């Protein structure tokens, strides 16, 4: 099964983080959550999250995908971390998936991974005048090659299901979705 890294930064959007982790694990995908330091993560609405490990401990681990939860403060903390930029560029260069939701596509943009790509994000997180080489699309989820982006908390389930489909196929995505009793 594929292995996915979900870095958890202080101020991340808990609905997005937990939805991603939960749904990918329902698909039997190995998900490793890593804090930027040894501390529990206080998410944007005050929910405390306990990462599986720290980012330092997984820097040399192989991953099939890295997924960045959003939340403005969380995305800013991820963006300030050189290790995150290094991992994103490394996975991208290896032909692996990079994904981000809400405000976190700004991290992908600042790492240079959205240049000449289609992407989406939380409204006004990426301003066209600041990032003229990115084609911003108003859609719940946008896939451009191995880069997957999404809009925000309301699209977290669609985003996570799309990540499942990309990693393990449509059949498993449909099995997970059926178990969620989502309306069609």
UniProtKB/TrEMBL annotation:
- Residues covered by the DJ-1/PfpI domain: 3-166
Keywords (alphabetical) are: Repeat
Q: Which InterPro entries match?
A: Class_I_gatase-like, DJ-1, DJ-1/PfpI, Prot/Nucl_acid_deglycase
Keyword Mitochondrion part of the UniProt annotation: no
Q: Does the keyword Repeat apply?
A: yes
Alphabetical list of Gene3D superfamilies matching this protein: 3.40.50.880
GO terms under cellular component: cytoplasm
Q: Which PANTHER family match?
A: PARKINSON DISEASE PROTEIN 7 HOMOLOG, PROTEIN/NUCLEIC ACID DEGLYCASE DJ-1-RELATED
Name the UniProt record assigns to this protein: DJ-1 family protein
Q: Which organism is it from?
A: Beggiatoa alba B18LD
């Amino acid at each position: 099964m594929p292995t996915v890294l979900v870095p958890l930064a202080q101020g991340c959007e808990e609905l997005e983080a937990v939805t991603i982790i939960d749904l990918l694990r329902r698909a039997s995908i190995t998900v490793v959550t890593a804090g930027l330091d040894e501390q529990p993560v206080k998410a944007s609405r005050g929910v405390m999250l306990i990462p599986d490990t720290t980012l330092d401990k997984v820097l040399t681990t192989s991953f099939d995908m890295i997924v960045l939860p959003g939340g403005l403060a969380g995305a800013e903390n991820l963006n300030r971390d050189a290790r995150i930029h290094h991992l994103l560029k490394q996975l991208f260069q290896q032909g692996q998936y990079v994904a981000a939701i809400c405000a976190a596509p700004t991290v992908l943009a600042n790492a240079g991974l959205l240049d000449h790509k289609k992407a989406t994000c939380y409204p006004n997180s990426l301003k066209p005048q600041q990032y003229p080489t990115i084609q911003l699309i108003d859609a719940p989820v946008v896939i451009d090659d191995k880069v997957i982006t999404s809009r925000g908390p309301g699209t977290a389930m669609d985003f996570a299901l799309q990540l499942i489909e990309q990693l393990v196929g449509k059949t498993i995505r449909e099995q997970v979705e059926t178990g969620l009793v989502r309306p069609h």
